[in-house]
Every structure is written in structure tokens, then in C-alpha cells.
């Protein structure tokens, strides 16, 4: 079982995309001369920098997708769906805090924990060091080498589809802010859209491939603060009734609002932030991560509420579809040109910040789920390299001591030698995920597809993915093999979030899957049953004598 990790500060690494904020204000080491030692920052300034570092979670969340869905919810249903914001915010804090704690205590991301759950024992290390290992045992060793769990493939598929569609929305958001002011002939219009989209895609790729995300995260934190100011001014210029605002915190679903409500929750508690949080938490303490996650969650909630209020300023006529350009014009008519300009600036800033974080977060998610390793985190990478070196040394020693005629066993031992990690942050697979998202985004935006439809579709996928991630996280947090702690209160919060999200996801998706056949009372019954079954299963995982397992070594006893 892995030991509890202590507070460490990762060193700079060429393949590292993320470094802890501590590296920006560490005390000088004893080996450094006093003349060359950097001056420590004031504690207050160091705390501000740390919070800006964690604002990356808010930057990834508040993008054109969030702006569109929150504003659409405000335009279509006024303030009746504001209850989705506190629900999503509480869920976000519970999930992100659990993931961060797992990274700090056990040194594992969610993907790594899933590998540990399905393949709990390092049989290769144990058996390869045993000089009396028989041929039958060697067969078991080779069979025990971990393969990617099936659940990881399923989660990766949902993550890739959802986040690629969301990345399309981020790229489209910046073009929308430019398109609002452009009024030229069609041939030039198409060329301009292509050039702006290409420039943004190249900029995102350049920043991510350079790997200077530590400084970018702090810059994105400043962008988030600017967005708060921007939407605050717009919201108060439009005005709102405090009675309607507080009554909106009472859960209700107006007709045909379930899909929008699910999207509002999924875009506030963004699934890829589960993997971003794991990387951000590497090398920090639990206290530091809780402060950072709390700050990011509060900022996201405030921004979401402000955007809903801004959306109420767009009074749609019967049958009129929500449109970002129409919203900007409405803001200009009702609150003046300043509000219009601020809204478009906020949209552009959100597009840029989310374009970076969504692409990187999706790559981190696939890396974690397919490899079971968090190679972005320096501490985890060093631990993995150390374990691989131990296996390699043990196997090499055995090969040198065996009879040369025993080729069969030798081949089996050679198969155990560790291979180069194919999902390293600088590898082609990791970068390929980013390139794939940007290519699809470029094609979607330049083709002129409906941006609103793409955003809603991405959030429907995200709404299905979110309770699935919550349930997987609940399993891993209660698995002793993973090596992390989980209190009854933490379990209760995670069980509640998983249950509510599952019921809402079924309520939203069932009519789409059945072609509208599942409606009304039958839909309520189906979603209620789904929520109840999820609750029972989640309670079994959290408080049962043994968490659910589907491991090869005990599958015969199931």
C-alpha cells in the first residue's frame, strides 16, 4: 500500500506541463549562495499567486460553453434554473477535493487508481525476484501485467467526444466576438473566419507544446478576475429582482428545460477538471489544495450566476432561438454600449483561457485513463521510473543466472521488462490528442455549423460522463489497495452527488434516446428508479464490507 506523501516541490522537467505554484516562491536552498538566492515573496503575495494558480480550474470551466448555456438558461427560463449553480458547485468541490486528496495521499490520479483497483498487486516485481519461480508461475506473471481496464476505454471515449465538442465551442467563441463587428462580403468573410480560427488553433498548440503552463495558469487567473469584473458590471447594468434570484435556488424544471439544466451542471462541474485537479495538486498539501479548490469553485459559481443574470436581459420572442450575437445587441439596447463591449470581451477572454485548458485537460485525462500514470507530475513520474528500474534490474539478474537452453522462461522474463511510457507528456499520443481536438475544431468552426447545438451536445455527453466519474471515484476512494482515506461525511457527499447527477442525466437523456417516447410520468419513474439503484450501489461501495471489484484473480468467486 502506498505511503502517505509529504509536501514536496517537483523539480523542473522537460516533459512536465504543470509545476506547482510553490516553485514560484520557494525559499532558497542551502546549497545556493546568498548573492544568487531569490528574495522570498511576501506571504500574502505568495498566497495570491497560489490562488491564481488554482484559478486554472475556473478558467477551464468558464468558456463559451458556460457563457452560452448559462445565458441561454437565463434567456429561456429567466432565474428559475439558478439552483443548478449551487448543486454543481458543491459537487465540484466534493469531487475535486477527493481527487486532490487521492493524488497527495496515494500519489495516483483517477486513471492510476482504476489500474490499482483492477490490478492491485505488482506480481512482476514479486515473482521476478524469486530465484525458484516455476514456469507455471511465470505464465501467471505475464498474465498479471496490467492492461488498460475496460472502464478506462469507456471513460476515455466519453471524455474525448465531450471535450472535443467543447473545444470546438471554445474556438467558435473567439470567432463569434470577431464576427459580431465584421460586416463584409461573403468571400472575404469565409477567409477571415478561416484565418482567425487557424490563428487561435496555432496559438493554443504553440503554448501547450512549449509547456510553459505554470506561468500561463497565473495569467489565466488574471483573465478570470477580469471576467468577474466584466460580467458584474453587465449584470448590475441589466438589473435583477433579488426575490426571483433566491426563489430560483429552489429546484424546479420548467417544460423542456432538463437538457439545459443538465448542461448547466456539467459545464459548471467540468469533468476534465477531475484530471486537471490531480495534476495541479501534485506536490502540495491537502490544506493548500482545499483553499485553491474552494477559491476556484466560488469564482466559478459567482461567474455562472452573473452570466445567468446577463442572459435574462435577452427577452426572446415566441419561437425565437437563443443567439450570442442577439444577446450582445440586446445588452447594447438595454444597458448601453459599455455592457455590449464588456460582454464580447468576456466571451473572447473565456474562449482563449478555455481553449488552452480544455485541450490540455483532455490530453491529461486520456493519459491518465490509458496509462494509469500521471507522468505530468514529477513525483509520480520519478516513482514510476524507480519501480521500473527495480523490475528491470531484477529480471536482468535472473536472465544472467539462468541456463542458456531454457529459452521459454527467458522469453517470458524479457516480456516483463518495462517499456517506455507511450503516454509521456512530450510523446506523440499526448500531443496527438491536442492536435486532434484542434483539427476537429478548425473544421467545425470554418464549416459554419451551429455553435449552440455543438455546445449543448458536448454538455449532454459531459452530463453523462460526470456521474460515471463520480461513481468510479467513489470505488477508488474506498479501495484499501489505492491507499487513501475517506470519511463517512465525504462518502455521504459523494454518494449524494452521484445519485442526483444520475437521476438528472437519465431524465435529460432518456427522451433523446427513446425519440420522445419516454415523457411525463414515465420519465419521472424511470429517472427515479435509476437514481434509487445508483444510490443503493453507491452505498454498497461506500459502506459495504468490501468495495465492488471485478479483478481477474477473484472473478471466479463472483
TrEMBL record:
- List the record's Gene Ontology CC terms alphabetically: plasma membrane
Spans of biased composition, class Low complexity?
Answer: 14-39
Keyword check for Membrane, yes or no: yes
One function term, GO molecular function aspect: manganese ion transmembrane transporter activity
Query: Which sequence ranges are marked TM in the entry?
Result: 51-71, 77-96, 150-176, 188-208, 220-240, 260-281, 293-313, 341-366, 428-449, 455-477, 489-510, 522-543
Give the membrane topology, semicolon-separated if more than one. Answer: Multi-pass membrane protein
| Pfam families xref list | Nramp
List where in the cell it is found: Membrane
Q: Name one GO biological process term.
A: iron ion transmembrane transport
Q: Which UniProt keywords apply?
A: Membrane, Transmembrane, Transmembrane helix, Transport
Q: Where is this region: Disordered?
A: 1-39, 380-404
Question: Which InterPro entries has this protein been placed in?
Answer: NRAMP_fam (IPR001046)
Record field: compositional bias (Polar residues): 387-399
Specify the protein name: Uncharacterized protein
Classification lineage: Eukaryota, Sar, Stramenopiles, Ochrophyta, Bolidophyceae
Amino acid at each position: 500500500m502506498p505511503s502517505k506523501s509529504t509536501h514536496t516541490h517537483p523539480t523542473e522537467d522537460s516533459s512536465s506541463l504543470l509545476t506547482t505554484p510553490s516553485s514560484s516562491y520557494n525559499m532558497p536552498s542551502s546549497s545556493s549562495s546568498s548573492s544568487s538566492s531569490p528574495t522570498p515573496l511576501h506571504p500574502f503575495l505568495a498566497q495570491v499567486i497560489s490562488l491564481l494558480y488554482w484559478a486554472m480550474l475556473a478558467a477551464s470551466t468558464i468558456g463559451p460553453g458556460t457563457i452560452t448555456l448559462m445565458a441561454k438558461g437565463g434567456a429561456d427560463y429567466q432565474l428559475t434554473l439558478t439552483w443548478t449553480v449551487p448543486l454543481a458547485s458543491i459537487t465540484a468541490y466534493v469531487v475535486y477535493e477527493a481527487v486532490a486528496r487521492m493524488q497527495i495521499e496515494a500519489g495516483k490520479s483517477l486513471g492510476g487508481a482504476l489500474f490499482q483497483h483492477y490490478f492491485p498487486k505488482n506480481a512482476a516485481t514479486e515473482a521476478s525476484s524469486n530465484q525458484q519461480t516455476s514456469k507455471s508461475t511465470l505464465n501467471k506473471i505475464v498474465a498479471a501485467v496490467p492492461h488498460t481496464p475496460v472502464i478506462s476505454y469507456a471513460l476515455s471515449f466519453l471524455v474525448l467526444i465531450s471535450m472535443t465538442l467543447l473545444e470546438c465551442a471554445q474556438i467558435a467563441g473567439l470567432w463569434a466576438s470577431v464576427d459580431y463587428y465584421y460586416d463584409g462580403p461573403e468571400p472575404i468573410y469565409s477567409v477571415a473566419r478561416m484565418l482567425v480560427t487557424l490563428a487561435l488553433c496555432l496559438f493554443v498548440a504553440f503554448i501547450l507544446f512549449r509547456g510553459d503552463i505554470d506561468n500561463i495558469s497565473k495569467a489565466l487567473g488574471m483573465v478570470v478576475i477580469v471576467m468577474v469584473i466584466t460580467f458584474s458590471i453587465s449584470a448590475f447594468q441589466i438589473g435583477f429582482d433579488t426575490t426571483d434570484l433566491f426563489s430560483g435556488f429552489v429546484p424546479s424544471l420548467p417544460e423542456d428545460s432538463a437538457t439545459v439544466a443538465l448542461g448547466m451542471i456539467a459545464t459548471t462541474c467540468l469533468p476534465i477538471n477531475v484530471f486537471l485537479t490531480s495534476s495541479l495538486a501534485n506536490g502540495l498539501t491537502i490544506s493548500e489544495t482545499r483553499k485553491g479548490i474552494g477559491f476556484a469553485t466560488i469564482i466559478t459559481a459567482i461567474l455562472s450566476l452573473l452570466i445567468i443574470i446577463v442572459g435574462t436581459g435577452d427577452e426572446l420572442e415566441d419561437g425565437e432561438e437563443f443567439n450570442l450575437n442577439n444577446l450582445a445587441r440586446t445588452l447594447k439596447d438595454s444597458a448601453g454600449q459599455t455592457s455590449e463591449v464588456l460582454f464580447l470581451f468576456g466571451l473572447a477572454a473565456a474562449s482563449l483561457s478555455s481553449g488552452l485548458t480544455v485541450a490540455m485537460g483532455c490530453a491529461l485525462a486520456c493519459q491518465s485513463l490509458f496509462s494509469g500514470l500521471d507522468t505530468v507530475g514529477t513525483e509520480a513520474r520519478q516513482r514510476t521510473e524507480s519501480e521500473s528500474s527495480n523490475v528491470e534490474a531484477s529480471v536482468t539478474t535472473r536472465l544472467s543466472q539462468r541456463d542458456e537452453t531454457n529459452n521459454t522462461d527467458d522469453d517470458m522474463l524479457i516480456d516483463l521488462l518495462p517499456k517506455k511510457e507511450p503516454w509521456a507528456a512530450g510523446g506523440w499520443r499526448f500531443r496527438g490528442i491536442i492536435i486532434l481536438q484542434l483539427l476537429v475544431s478548425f473544421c467545425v468552426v470554418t464549416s459554419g455549423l451551429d455553435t449552440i447545438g455543438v455546445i449543448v451536445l458536448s454538455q449532454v455527453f459531459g452530463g453523462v460522463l460526470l456521474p460515471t466519474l463520480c461513481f468510479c471515484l467513489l470505488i477508488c476512494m474506498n479501495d484499501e489497495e489505492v491507499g487513501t482515506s475517506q470519511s463517512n461525511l465525504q462518502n455521504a457527499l459523494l454518494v449524494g452527488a452521484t445519485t442526483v447527477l444520475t437521476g438528472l442525466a437519465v431524465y435529460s437523456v432518456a427522451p433523446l434516446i427513446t425519440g420522445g417516447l419516454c415523457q411525463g410520468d414515465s420519465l419521472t419513474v424511470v429517472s427515479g428508479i435509476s437514481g434509487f439503484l445508483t444510490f443503493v450501489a453507491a452505498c454498497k461501495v461506500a459502506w459495504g464490507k468490501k468495495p465492488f471489484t471485478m479483478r481477474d484473480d477473484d472473478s471466479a468467486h463472483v
